[in-house]
Write a structure and sequence with these properties.
Number of domains: 1
Oligomer: single chain
Helix content: 10-25%
CATH class: Alpha Beta
Strand order of the largest sheet: 6-5-4-3-2-1-14
CATH architecture: 4-Layer Sandwich
Number of strands: 14
Length: 249
């Protein structure tokens, strides 16, 4: 199975009509991985695969626009008839279990142990599922956040998660065939902490990659303008992510 990415959602910071928040279906080497689980993405995931076939779930950070639909999945797997053959590995920041437990009014995340096998991420975390390797790199955001590098049969996809400017983004993108990167904000305000990227930042960090897919475009930009501005700096093939498209890496 070639390495591919299906876009489930791209919106920031809240979903819109026919536009869920961040989420992707990553396929390669026999594995199917749900990458980020923003509002509305569990429904979209079911358009493209049977969720009980998921090999793993990988979450960049615990802001709701990237993780809230873990709750929808928990309801589906625990109560909705979507019977998992075994708990699905959930790679995420360590607090994910406590966050999920809070949604259910529980203090112990172990009550979902039949659904999720929680595996905390850390900088340099790497795991292999079939012929797909997932490597995580800490990036600069206002909460614990990781970027992803996925490798399969000589192809490489990199994903920024949410991040402000940091060297880790260049490391993630270097040598990648496709870099999926946020371009959330139009410009920085004076004194503002830099926890997201402008399109120009996105294009600059993509320079080590073969192609750029611009995603997570916020309300101060259009997807078209963000891609155009990023492409002007990147100088290589650039598109913006659209719900439902599948890109072969």
């Amino acid at each position: 199975m070639p390495l591919s990415l299906t876009v489930l959602g791209t919106a920031s910071p809240h979903p819109g009509p026919r536009r869920p928040c961040s989420g992707y279906l990553l396929r390669g080497g026999g594995a199917e991985v749900w990458v980020d689980a923003g509002f509305g993405t569990f429904a979209e995931l079911q358009r493209h695969t049977d969720p009980t076939r998921l090999t793993a779930i990988w979450i960049s950070h615990l802001h709701a626009d990237h993780s809230a639909d873990l709750l929808a999945a928990a309801y589906g797997f625990a109560f909705g008839g979507l019977r998992l053959p075994a708990p699905v590995p959930l790679y995420a920041p360590a607090d994910v279990g406590q966050q999920l437990a809070g949604f259910f009014g529980q203090s112990d995340p172990g009550f979902l142990s039949g659904v999720f096998a929680i595996r905390p991420l850390y900088d340099g975390h790497a795991v292999r599922h079939w012929n797909l390797t997932l490597s995580s790199r800490a990036v600069s955001h206002d909460t614990e956040t990781y970027g992803l590098r996925a490798e399969c049969q000589g192809k490489v996809l990199a994903y920024s998660g949410d991040s402000g400017p940091c060297d880790a983004l260049a490391d993630l993108a270097r040598g990648a065939d496709l870099f999926v990167c946020e371009a959330d904000i139009d410009r920085y305000r004076e004194g503002e902490r830099r926890v997201h990227l402008t399109p120009e930042d996105t294009g600059a960090y993509a320079k080590g990659a073969g192609r750029l897919l611009v995603t997570h475009v916020g309300p101060t930009l259009t997807r078209e303008s963000a891609a155009e501005r990023a492409a002007a700096v990147f100088g290589g093939p650039t598109e913006y992510a659209r719900e439902g498209i599948t890109t072969v890496v």
